[in-house]
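Interim report, section 4.2 (structural modelling).
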Amino acid sequence: MAAAAFYDLDGTLVRTNLVHAYAYNARNQQGLLRSVTRTISTALRVPLFMAADVYSRRLFNDVFFGRYQGESEDRLRYLADELFDNVIRPSIFPGAYELIDKSRRLGLRQVLVTGALDLTVRPLARHLGIDDAVTNRLEYVDGKATGRLLPPIMAAATKASWIRVYAEKEGLNLSECYSYSDSMSDLPMLSVVGHPTAVNPDFRLRNTALQHDWPILDLR
Amino acid sequence: MREREPKIFRGPTPRHKEDDQVVYIDTNSAPRMIFSGEDLLLEDLPVGTRVVYAKPPMEGLANPGAAIRYALNHPLGTDPLYAQLVPGMRVTIAVDDISLPLPPMQTPDIRQTILEILLELLDANGVDDVHIIIANSLHRRLTPSEMKRMVGSKIYDAFYPDRYYNHDAEDPEGMVHLGKTDHNEPVNINRRAVESDLLIYVNINLVPMDGGHKSVTVGLCDYESLRPHHEPQTIRDSNSYMDPKSSALSTKVERMGAIVDQHMNVFHIETALNNRMFGGPTAFLSKNEDEFTELDRLKFEGMRWTLSKMPAAAKRKLFHSIPAQYQLVAVHAGKTDPVHERILAKTFEQYMVNIRGQSDILICGVPFISPYNVNSILNPLLVQVMGLGYFHNFYRGKPVLRKGGVLILCHPCYDEFDHEQHPSYIEFFNRLLPETRDAMVLRHKYEEEFAHNPSYISMYRRGHAYHGAHPFFMWYWGENGRQHVGKVIVAGAQNAHVPAMLGWDRAESLTEAIAMAKSFVGPSASTTLMHHPPIVMADVE
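Predicted structure of the assembly:
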């Protein structure tokens, strides 16, 4: 029976996170004044984002993705490739390439399961040779982002649910599958497969991994 | 409840001895101290029990530096090293990893002494393209501080990290396929070593299994090259694997070594150390208890009291921080086979003790250390490899224990693993052993899954983890012991599930274990205690 390797992205395979992606977007607004004000206001909100993330990933999504409201879809698409070349590619952890390569050699399907936006993930997935990716997607009305995400919103338990459905649809044996994440919020995604692995874990996930005897990787 | 009488040493009295190394317990014998992990037991053994001690340490060479220089200038089967050096040539020096010697020796480590002489010689001959590779095979990478301790700060500062590093068996660009033996065994060796004009291997022979062709063909190989001999049938056919003449493992390694010699210019330097594992304040640990002085008894009781007050982790730290006092007793250089033959003879001279007849019951105290847990925990799989692997195989000719006899191991058998060094051991122990203990099934069904597990590979390459396949090798390492013994009893195991998982019985104390063993092999059973450490091996008549 076939199997897959499921990867979280931010903090797991790349050093950057959602805020870096948005900050790049903020810095590259049309017009200097707009770029400066967006950048400063984003920087000022970082503590708010962090607090929201600690409280709940759902709350973080509401607070964070609201910042995209009014952004043009064309502009975001245009910036996505630049974002990848200038920010994301240099931030890929050195060990990520090998991990994916070894995993692919085992015949495992490579799947990204991430809360990042489809726009930013697409070039990265191509670069890493990822077979499938499920991401968050912004809602657009008349070509402008509403600041809301389209369901299903990829976070915490939703990732695990998606993996279950995906495995059933693709005929994968979950007990043979691998899962990689850096964050305690991805505990459901790690728990649903036979080979969970903590990657560059935060303190809580490290302790959990130790308790469950999961391997702990450092790809940095 | 009646309080137990305190055990006391009764002082020196004449004993029934076959020689200085073989003592029989009588009614006046002192109790024997036995390692049990990080603790020291003091046990009254049944009258008639044979206790086998290590030989006293051989005299160390008075001037190791001069002996090393002599060996380099008078090599066996090849030109002197200086005559092989050409300015601008590419040289790689491979050194044994931290699994040798045990415990790590006092500084300067013998590798440092040899490297200082070698590097001076290379420099004087205009050779500056020099890399030093730790031949760790599928063992864990050494940490920078361990690497520094091994070679000294001068060499470390000059070579680390670009020219002094660990071998990486999983580097896709780092291995070269040299060919196959006529038995279809692939020989894959570290690229830098293969592409060098000269490979100098600096070996330490702690046990007779070490050295010879095993140094290069195992130390610098990859998983595919290990598979042909690190497997259950080879170990079953090695009786023992500490005796190269009777070891299928050794035969296969020599076959693969011939391929290495066809493609590479290897200058082999082998060393033999004496068995001065304990020195100074801990020297009494090597002594016959009947010959303890008052001061020895005081030191022993003080040590035991101190250990009883310390948590396990602190005890572990304490023991791992006491370096061994090994001394160089022989060094030879040149072609692999003649060099190894001479060093092997010296190693046997230090370790072998003649004993008459096999035993129905064999008792071994399992200490805190094995080749695979330096600065770490002796986890259950390593307790297994010490008992059924190393201790069982410490013989030439016939095993000390008769076929179907009882092996008694003293160890707490704590269910503890080092997540950083032994991650794949944890899965092996908890997931595979409950399903089967059959080494053949384990190899066939699961070994490759573990070997190719991307997480374990990453932890081996980027962290300090043993390779994913390593716990399998540890299990196979106990295979001839497992086939030979009738029963294993762990005395003093602090839980029931670890011995059960390993397929062993458990006893609260050594006395209970001996009673259980006698109920299995008969009340008139003969009993032998191999008084490890230091290492002692038996020539059984």
